[in-house]
User: Fold this.
Amino acid sequence: MSAQATSGRDKRAWRRWEEDGEQGPFEPLTRTEVEELRRRQPSVSPWQVIGAQALLGLLLAAAAWLLFGRAVAASALYGAGVAVLPGALMARGSTSPLARLTPVAGALSILLWSFVKIGATVMLLALAPRVVQPLHWPALLVALVACLQVYWFALLVRGRPKNNAA
Assistant:
């Protein structure tokens, strides 16, 4: 079916709903339905993700210290910081009261703080050779990539709705 035919059919359906006095094809949820939906699909706070990244970074740095020594541990800790600090900046900015004023303000806030996060990440990576000496790039990059994978883990945890049927 062509897009034009589908579009015409959709317009006729909307007109029919408007003429019948209905609200449209979607009915708003009741407060009880919203609470049930939130209970089944809880959201993950950005601060929980940042905390998990920081904890993973500390564990990686401790393991690097035990296995390879202080220099490698410092590089791993810095790599974790490259993931955690910009992420914390974005979480703080995108969860501010200003970001919750309107949906447009929220979207613009996410966009703005995404650019801030990218800029901070690039800056921290560029400063790495001056801040951490001697720098061990593989340890830094392994810790950075491992901490960034926490986002995927958070999506997996959030993506599994609780089922009441059991």
User: Anything to note?
Assistant: Helices lie at 3-20, 31-40, 46-68, 70-94, 103-131, 137-148, 150-158. DSSP finds seven helices and no strands in the chain. Residues 1-5 have pLDDT under 50 and may be disordered. The chain has two domains: 3-38, 42-158.
